[in-house]
Specification:
Elements: E1 9-15, E2 18-24, E3 33-39, E4 42-50, E5 63-67, H1 90-103, E6 115-123, H2 130-144, E7 154-161, E8 164-167, H3 171-176, E9 179-185, E10 190-200, H4 202-230, H5 244-261, H6 267-289, H7 291-320, E11 335-339, E12 347-353, E13 356-365, E14 371-373, E15 380-382, E16 384-389, H8 406-420, E17 432-441, H9 446-461, E18 470-479, E19 482-486, H10 491-496, E20 499-505, E21 510-517, H11 524-548, E22 562-567, H12 573-577, H13 582-591, E23 594-597, E24 602-607, H14 610-624, E25 632-641, E26 644-649, E27 654-659, E28 680-690, E29 693-697, H15 710-717, H16 731-739
Parallel strand pairs: 5-6, 16-17, 27-29
Antiparallel strand pairs: 1-2, 2-3, 3-4, 4-6, 7-8, 7-9, 9-10, 10-21, 11-12, 12-13, 13-17, 14-15, 18-19, 18-20, 20-21, 22-24, 23-24, 25-26, 25-28, 26-27, 28-29
Helix pairs in contact: 1-2, 1-8, 2-4, 4-11, 5-6, 5-7, 6-7, 8-9, 13-14
């Protein structure tokens, strides 16, 4: 067999006690760049492909990053009817966004060729997270390709366990970590941050970021060495830039007017003024250039207007500290808060900050409402989740409404991460909690408004949260070495600025953080200032929230399903469930309750009626509670024998035998003359010296007959009893002879 002569390049580096290996030259060679990255038994394939320019040049960079989960990677078959992967999971979408945000700032300005980066986990060991590996893989695939890219960059995850930082913690370690921080960066600076935390201080968070950056530097050096050996020469591409002979005359003629227009207060008033000015500039420029020349340069003329708007907004803020809406650089927009905005719903709040408005609704459900997450990891259930909706009317536009896009999923995940820390554990509050954030108006920072309104709605619903949480988004304007950090950015400042830095937290620390930048990195000084301003803003907003509601309500709404829990011995769960679930199904059917049983022994019972919950608890306790000799029990005769009756008691889940000597049956009379199957009977336990063998009596304490012999117990175990002797004790042989039809007289 003729084999391929693959030219394989391979390199390894050890990070935090784990070996990361990269390889190229064997797989997916028709892509502009491809790489296999391995850590442990997690293997990820990344490809990068550049397309040709379209017939009409776009005014944006068409980058697409797709992280595609393959269920075979973890030895699983997809669920559903078709048994194949369908649309990306929420987790896959979030990882795609994470990688996109890391690499997007590093492409040249004016680059317009479409680029598609595809990441496919081919093997997943459940230990090593593919997300940070994906950032490294994307950077390497682009660096060794002929696609223009100002890399390399790398990504790592930082955990915090026992007050020590851990680089790239395992999935299991992250469960106990106070921090789950993803950092992306180049050798010189940090370009991306995504974090969930459990009240981690700003100082500790900053320390964690730069702890991770030290390892990023090592990974970037490794990539540079690898690219020297395996990389291709970069192709020359056409960069889309506005010609100087268009933008300079426009600035001379309209620069001051544009600057004045950008000071108009109010989002829609300002946008209307901009639209009117833009239309005027286009018409007047068309007259100057003539029809043919204008048609040739129309796209650049419109781009020039946008570029001048950006320039004057940024300069006014940077050099005059004058924002478009008239605020100071550290001012928070006006805030209005209202709770109980809606009837029926279990908890609601309305949060308005400037021209951004969010309606938060909390619904409390049972274990039946838990969200099942089926991905590469083992299937698990979520008892808390947040959904973010961003309809087009919130920005005064028309558009399609349907399933959430990447932006909605990303914003919702950030707000959910910010609130996750304060959600009570299931043993304290056994409800499934769903928050829905409806964005009714938007002019920047709607995800942080979602965090605020979500917290308010939780308290209004009576969820016993650990502490209130608020969120803020800060921005950055930077030209050369001069910069200014803005508090509570609005949409214009987000669009034209260099950074979107979002932080949620309690009064004590950070619960979530996300940073996106449009430049190649920021300094430690900038990040420190941004965190300090975020802390002051969070404390201010928490103060406003406390003026409306100081703590969670003590009572739940009347229409919330009532849930009570029992903690039982996990070894007794089989008795409660029964064969094929027969017993628990019967309890559910009788009580019309919803019952959920955890492997830990936690049993949750839900119903709108308290008496039904109590009945279900009574039945369950009857199964797992052992009867006591000091208690009387109401039972029912289940079987009658000559030597006594069998009785079912404790709701029918226990059965014992009451011997004739412990029954009100006169000597010489038959038990069946006094008892029938189904008769009620009040009994107590006299002895239980063998598992499952319960001896009962109707006699009062102290009236029991003499203790039975071992032979009685054996006979009882066989299902019969000799009863009290009236004609003398014949012994075993006498009984045997009697059964055989004769008797040996004893002397």
């Amino acid at each position: 067999m003729q084999q391929h002569a693959f030219k394989v390049f391979k390199k390894s580096v050890e990070i935090g006690g784990k070996t990361i290996t990269i390889e190229t030259g064997k797989i997916a060679k028709q892509a502009n760049g491809s790489v296999i990255i391995t850590c442990g038994q997690t293997v990820l394939l990344c490809t990068a492909v550049m397309g040709k320019l379209g017939k009409e040049m776009t005014d944006f960079f068409p980058l697409t990053v797709d992280y595609i989960e393959k269920m075979y990677a973890s030895g699983k078959i997809p669920g559903g009817f078709f048994k194949r992967e369908a649309k990306p999971s929420t987790n896959a979408t979030l990882i795609s966004r994470l990688i996109d945000r890391s690499i997007r700032p590093l492409f040249p300005d004016g680059f317009r060729n479409p680029v598609h980066v595809v990441l496919s986990p081919l093997s997943y060991d459940g230990i090593n997270d593919p997300a940070p590996l994906g950032i490294i893989a994307a950077s390497i695939a682009l660096s060794i390709s002929d696609i223009p890219f100002n890399g390399p960059i790398a990504g790592v995850t930082v955990g915090l366990i026992n007050n020590e930082f851990i680089i790239n913690p395992t999935i299991e370690e992250l469960e106990t970590s106070l921090l789950n921080l993803n950092v992306g960066g180049s050798e010189s600076s940090v370009v991306m941050i995504e974090a969930g935390a459990k009240d981690v201080t700003e100082a500790k968070m900053l320390e964690a970021v730069y702890f991770g950056h030290d390892f990023i530097k090592m990974l970037c050096q490794m990539q540079s060495e690898f690219a020297k050996d395996a990389g291709k020469s970069k192709v020359e591409v056409i960069l889309d830039k506005i010609p100087d002979d268009i933008i300079k005359p426009m600035e001379e003629s309209y620069g001051l007017t544009i600057n004045e227009t950008m000071q108009v207060k109010g989002k829609h008033d300002r946008q209307n003024a901009i639209d009117a000015l833009s239309e005027r500039i286009v018409l007047e420029t068309a007259e100057k250039l003539g029809e043919e020349e204008f048609a040739k340069n129309e796209r650049y003329i419109k781009q020039a207007i946008e570029e001048l708007i950006k320039k004057y907004v940024r300069q006014t803020i940077l050099y005059e500290q004058n924002r478009a809406d008239g605020r100071g650089v550290d001012d928070i927009r006006d805030i209005s808060i209202e709770i109980d905005y809606l009837p029926i719903v279990h908890g609601s709040a309305l949060f308005t900050r400037g021209e951004t408005q969010a309606l938060g609704c909390v619904t409390l459900g049972t274990a039946d409402d838990e969200q099942i997450i089926d991905g590469l990891d083992e299937e698990y259930k979520k008892t808390f989740f947040l959904h973010y909706n961003f309809p087009p009317f919130s920005v005064g536009e028309t558009g399609r409404m349907g399933s959430p896009g990447r932006r909605e999923l990303g914003h919702g995940a950030l707000a959910e991460r910010g609130l996750e820390y304060i959600i009570p554990s299931k043993d304290i509050f056994p409800y499934t909690i769903r928050i829905v954030s409806e964005i009714l108006e938007s002019n920047g920072s709607s995800s942080m408004a979602t965090a605020c309104v979500g917290c308010l709605a939780l308290m209004a619903a009576g969820v016993p949260i650990k502490a209130p949480v608020a969120g803020i988004a800060n921005g950055l304007i930077m030209e050369g070495d001069k910069f200014i950090v803005l508090t509570d950015i609005q949409g214009l400042e987000d669009h034209l600025g260099d950074m979107d830095f979002k932080v949620t937290g309690t009064k004590n620390g950070i619960t979530a953080m996300q940073m996106d930048i449009k430049i190649e990195g920021i300094t430690k000084e900038i990040m420190t200032i941004a965190l300090q301003k975020a802390r002051m803003s969070i404390n201010t907003i928490l103060g406003y929230m406390e003026q409306v509601i100081t703590e969670p309500r003590k009572e739940l709404a009347d229409n919330v399903p009532k849930i009570e829990t029992l903690q039982v011995d996990p070894t007794r769960l089989g008795e409660i469930i029964g064969a094929s679930g027969k017993i628990i199904k019967a309890i559910i059917e009788e009580t019309k309750t919803s019952i959920n049983i955890e492997d830990t022994g936690l049993v949750s019972i839900a119903s709108a009626e308290t008496n039904m919950i109590n009945r279900a608890k009574e039945l369950i306790l009857s199964i797992i509670t052992e009867p006591s000799t000091s208690e009387w029990y109401n039972g029912v005769v289940s079987r009658i024998e000559t030597f006594g009756v069998f009785v079912k008691f404790m709701n029918g889940y226990k059965e014992g035998m009451a011997h004739v000597s412990g029954l009100p049956v006169p000597r010489g009379e038959n038990v069946s003359d006094h008892f029938k199957v189904g008769d009620p009977i009040r009994v107590r336990l006299t002895e239980s010296d063998k598992p499952g063998k319960l001896a009962l009596s109707t006699r009062e304490f102290g009236d029991d007959p003499a203790p039975r012999t071992a032979s009685f117990d054996r006979d009882r175990d066989r299902g019969y009893d000799r009863g009290p002797r009236r004609d003398g004790d014949r012994g075993r042989s006498g009984d045997r002879d009697r059964r055989d039809g004769f008797n040996k007289k004893r002397y």
